[in-house]
């Protein structure tokens, strides 16, 4: 066995100081040399546990072997058998909790950089276009509606189109991609990549209808009725932002992360006035929460010119939800982390604009229901964090539009559509759901896994219907 | 894309558009709105649905030129297309089956009053409409609204037609005369007008609804830009509204929030007009 490097081959990145004012992608991607070096760190396990950690079942070991053998197109082909959005997943998957968490070398060394290799292969494929995508040779007459064009919907659409179904994706916004479009910033996921993946789906024969709000413009009852769709997949995501219900939350300059990121990512407010949608440019920003979205909001604030971007979290770094890599990037870019800090109220100036946030310091107490130490306020530790922009990044609730307007669709106490986790089947015949609308806010790859399973179940359902 | 089938000048700064939008028309209810975008670099703006014709598959929008985007819309002509049109959004206005409703429309808000009047009329509810404008030449849609009203009352700030004064003042006089005959009030127009209406009806306990149009982004409940305080509780105008109990609305906060981007709006307009 060759001697393995103990650490992952480093990912080249833009300079941390320079990129504070750039929207370009931060992680530049592996060169061929680096990809080969990393691929050769894989010990090619007989029983590749990493693959069990992948919600869509990418043949990880085999694609890495192809990379090591410099057969990049072969590697791409292998990935594509299971993952229709590899360039996206290679960038945004929380690999440390998925495939890489299962890597056999992890006991002694850093795991193999599976995410980085997936991205390398996907980018290599993008740079070497070929006529890969074409409509399925066997076309089926049945129409299938996909509601929402985020990762769950795109994956289901791709699988069903490849099976020959007539697939139409309905999107409420004017652009395709869901959270990939409005939520994840350009510097982490260039929108050109989302565009390319959408084009690939079009080549497969998938139709896209933007500006159609299912539940408003058309209902699911109508899709399954007079519009003649044989099945519907609901992937409408967890679109409804949570607020804290603390005083001053409606001051000018207090944003939900969804609003802040949508202005910047979907509407390109960072290019105002070249683009018409404005966003407030902070000098001191406070971001509440410590998940991926909070990291994005802090890094967006830095790029919009904030001299200080604070991330305020009531627990500690050990409990934060963000991907390690994004946390690291935020630290490099100068984000300030205020752990064990809980906002109590927003302070406004005479003009109704936020100028500060009163916070209280916390300490860790006994474990709570989640098993994590419960943060407890330290009496008398209140202080005001000066800020002229605050972003609430505490997560989202399921989008209620479809459940409210679809008869016979059961939801749980959180507003999530109740599904069979194996198939995505809902309480309504012919209606399947997956992604954040079924699970609450989670990750791109879990949503893709759910889209994949539902596509399989829809196929089975429609085949059964023919017998 | 949505094709503009007709365009009519209502005032030198207000235009009426009839737009081909069969799915929106077939699902629209009185009180709902659409989100429109007209330029690849453009913003998403909410516009009330003034009329919908399910058979023709059209909707009618009234747009007043106030900023850059409304200016871009008003510059479009018949045969042009709206780049993006999404809707119908928001909840239908909660309307009674019986009684006597008094509708107050100010400025181009008169456009949004029309579908309310039409529906109430259809239900057999008595309709009194008060429509206000600065002067006679700015009073819009009288030809549409008057036939849908049992009593149509125009108001102008300069007295050039109808009642000389603000709509809320006339409303106050009607209520003082015989307030008990009215069962519902709906007010749509500039924020100060809706606020004045709310204060006028409050002492009479007359159930009053206003249609709020705060700054919006997606219009589908995803961002919370349009949040407003109703009786101390935060609501999203796009999915919980746009109609709210006028006596519960925190108008102070709503006015402050509506001015979030005044500087940016001025800059965007200056860059277009060169002023």
Number of strands of chain A: 16
**Superfamily (CATH H level) name of the largest domain in chain B:** Nucleotide-binding domain of ferredoxin-NADP reductase (FNR) module
CATH class of the largest domain in chain B: Alpha Beta
SSE class of chain B: alpha/beta
Q: What is the average of the pLDDT values of chain B?
A: 95
Q: What is the typical, i.e. mean, pLDDT of chain A?
A: 93
Helix content of chain B: 25-40%
Strand order of the largest sheet of chain B: 6-1-2-5-4-3-7
What is the CATH topology of the largest domain in chain B?
Answer: Rossmann fold
Quaternary state, please?
A: heterodimer
Shape of chain B: globular
Number of helical stretches of at least 4 residues of chain A: 16
Can you count the helices of chain B?
9
CATH superfamily assignment of the largest domain in chain A?
Answer: FAD/NAD(P)-binding domain
CATH architecture of the largest domain in chain A: 3-Layer(bba) Sandwich
Radius of gyration of chain A (CA) equals 23 Å
What is the β-strand count of chain B? 16
Strand order of the largest sheet of chain A: 3-2-1-4-16
**What structural category do the secondary elements of chain A indicate?**
alpha/beta
Instruction: Write the CATH architecture name of the largest domain in chain B.
Output: 3-Layer(aba) Sandwich
What ranges of chain B have pLDDT less than 50 throughout 5 or more consecutive residues? none
């Amino acid at each position: 066995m060759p001697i393995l490097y103990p650490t992952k081959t480093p990912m080249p990145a833009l300079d941390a100081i320079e990129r504070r004012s750039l929207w370009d992608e931060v992680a530049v991607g592996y060169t061929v040399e680096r990809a080969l070096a990393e691929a050769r760190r894989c010990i090619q396990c007989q029983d590749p546990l990493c693959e069990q950690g992948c919600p869509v079942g990418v043949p990880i070991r085999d694609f890495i072997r192809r990379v090591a053998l410099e057969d990049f197109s072969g590697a791409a082909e292998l990935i594509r058998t299971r993952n229709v959005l590899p360039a996206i997943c290679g960038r945004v998957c929380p690999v440390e909790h998925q495939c890489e968490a299962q890597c056999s070398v992890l006991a002694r060394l850093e795991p193999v950089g599976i995410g980085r290799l997936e991205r390398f292969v996907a980018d290599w494929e993008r740079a070497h276009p070929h006529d890969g995508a074409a409509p399925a040779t066997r076309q089926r007459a049945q129409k299938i509606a996909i509601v929402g064009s985020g990762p769950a919907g795109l994956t289901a659409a791709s699988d069903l189109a490849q099976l020959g179904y007539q697939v139409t994706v309905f999107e409420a916004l004017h652009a395709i991609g869901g959270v990939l479009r409005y939520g994840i910033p350009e510097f982490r996921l260039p929108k050109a990549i989302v565009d390319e993946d959408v084009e690939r789906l079009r080549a497969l024969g998938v139709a896209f209808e933007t500006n159609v709000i299912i539940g408003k413009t058309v209902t699911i009852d109508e899709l399954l009725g007079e519009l003649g769709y044989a099945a519907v997949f609901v992937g409408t995501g967890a679109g409804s932002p949570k607020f804290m219900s603390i005083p001053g939350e409606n001051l000018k300059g207090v944003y939900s992360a969804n609003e802040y990121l949508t202005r910047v990512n979907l509407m390109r407010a960072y290019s105002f006035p070249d683009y018409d949608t404005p966003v407030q440019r902070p000098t001191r920003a406070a971001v509440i929460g410590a998940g991926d979205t909070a990291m994005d909001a802090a890094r967006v604030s830095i790029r919009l010119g904030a001299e200080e971007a604070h991330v305020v979290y009531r627990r500690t770094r050990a409990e934060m939800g963000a991907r390690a890599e994004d946390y690291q990037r935020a630290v490099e870019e100068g984000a300030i982390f205020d752990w064990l800090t809980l906002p109590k109220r927003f302070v406004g100036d005479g003009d109704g604009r936020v100028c500060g946030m009163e916070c209280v310091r916390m300490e860790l107490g006994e474990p709570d229901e989640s098993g994590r130490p419960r943060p407890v306020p330290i009496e008398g530790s209140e202080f005001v964090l000066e800020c002229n922009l605050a972003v609430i990044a505490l997560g989202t609730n399921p989008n209620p539009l479809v459940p409210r307007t679809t008869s016979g669709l059961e939801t749980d106490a959180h507003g999530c559509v109740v599904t069979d986790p194996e198939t995505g089947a809902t309480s309504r015949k012919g209606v399947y759901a997956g992604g954040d609308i079924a699970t609450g806010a989670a990750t791109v790859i879990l949503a893709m896994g759910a889209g994949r399973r539902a596509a399989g179940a829809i196929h089975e359902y429609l085949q059964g219907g023919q017998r | 894309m949505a094709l503009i089938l007709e365009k009519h000048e209502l005032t030198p700064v207000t235009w009426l558009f009839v737009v081909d939008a069969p799915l929106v028309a077939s699902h629209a209810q009185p009180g709902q709105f659409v989100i429109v975008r007209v330029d690849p670099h453009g913003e998403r703006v909410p516009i009330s649905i003034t009329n919908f014709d399910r058979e023709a598959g059209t909707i009618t929008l009234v747009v007043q030129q106030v900023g850059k985007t409304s200016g871009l819309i008003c510059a479009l002509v018949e045969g042009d297309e709206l780049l993006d049109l999404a809707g119908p959004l928001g909840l239908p206005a909660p309307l009674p089956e019986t009684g006597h409703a008094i509708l107050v429309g100010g400025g181009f808000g008169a456009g949004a009053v029309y579908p309310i009047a039409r529906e109430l009329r259809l239900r057999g509810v008595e309709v009194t409409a008060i429509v206000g404008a600065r002067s006679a030449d700015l009073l819009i849609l009288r030809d549409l609204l008057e036939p849908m009203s049992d009593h149509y009352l125009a108001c102008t700030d300069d007295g050039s037609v109808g009642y000389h004064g603000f709509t809320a003042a006339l409303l106050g006089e009607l209520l003082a005369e015989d307030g008990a005959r009215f069962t519902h009030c709906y007010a749509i127009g500039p924020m100060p007008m809706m606020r004045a209406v709310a204060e006028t009806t409050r002492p009479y306990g007359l159930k009053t609804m206003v249609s709020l149009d705060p700054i919006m982004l997606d219009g589908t409940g995803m961002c919370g830009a349009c949040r407003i305080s109703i009786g101390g509780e935060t609501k999203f105008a796009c999915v919980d509204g746009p109609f709210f109990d006028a006596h519960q609305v925190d108008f102070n906060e709503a006015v402050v929030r509506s001015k979030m981007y005044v500087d940016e709006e001025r800059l965007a307009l200056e860059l277009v007009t060169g002023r």
